[in-house]
């Protein structure tokens, strides 16, 4: 393993176990960047703050995670070394090595810690699953997906694709999927 790779190696702690995080792909970075930029632009002058990849979130003594993007509205949990408590919204971008944890343990961890909104983004499918916390449980609110260009749709099928994702923390906060996914293949 090269020294440069080892220097870029990041880790999370899930249920007391250290879990190495593989370096993200270029498309992962691009999606994360676009989303963080959209969050930061909308939140300018508002009390909530957006944070992107690399910021640790300390949830329990046995769990710290490094989400891809998040929004934090409580300034009291923002520390110099990370977030100490539950963000309001967390986004995880799937990769083959992380999707089991993102859909399993981490989803349950976020639910138990009261994170109001959780997004799971699939770069390959160009989908965003939005889970909202209701009565202490996550419920799938919506799946947003860019309409594929290379398939023939029956009349009325294109309307089933939702091309703008709503951020539930604000009444008027919508982001076009094209802005998030850009020109990813």
List its traits.
185 residues; alpha+beta; six-stranded mixed beta sheet; four-stranded mixed beta sheet; disordered N terminus
Protein topology:
Layout: H1 3-8, E1 10-14, E2 17-21, H2 26-43, E3 49-52, E4 57-60, E5 63-65, E6 69-72, E7 78-79, E8 82-84, E9 89-93, H3 99-103, H4 105-112, E10 117-122, E11 127-134, E12 137-145, E13 164-166, E14 174-176, H5 177-181
Give an account of the 3D structure.
The structure is a single chain. This protein has 185 residues and is α+β, with helices and mostly antiparallel strands. The chain has helices at 3-8, 26-43, 99-103, 105-112, 177-181, and strands at residues 10-14, 17-21, 49-52, 57-60, 63-65, 69-72, 78-79, 82-84, 89-93, 117-122, 127-134, 137-145, 164-166, 174-176. Strand 11 (127-134) and strand 12 (137-145) form a beta hairpin. It is globular and about 55 Å long. The model is unreliable at 1-6 (pLDDT under 50).
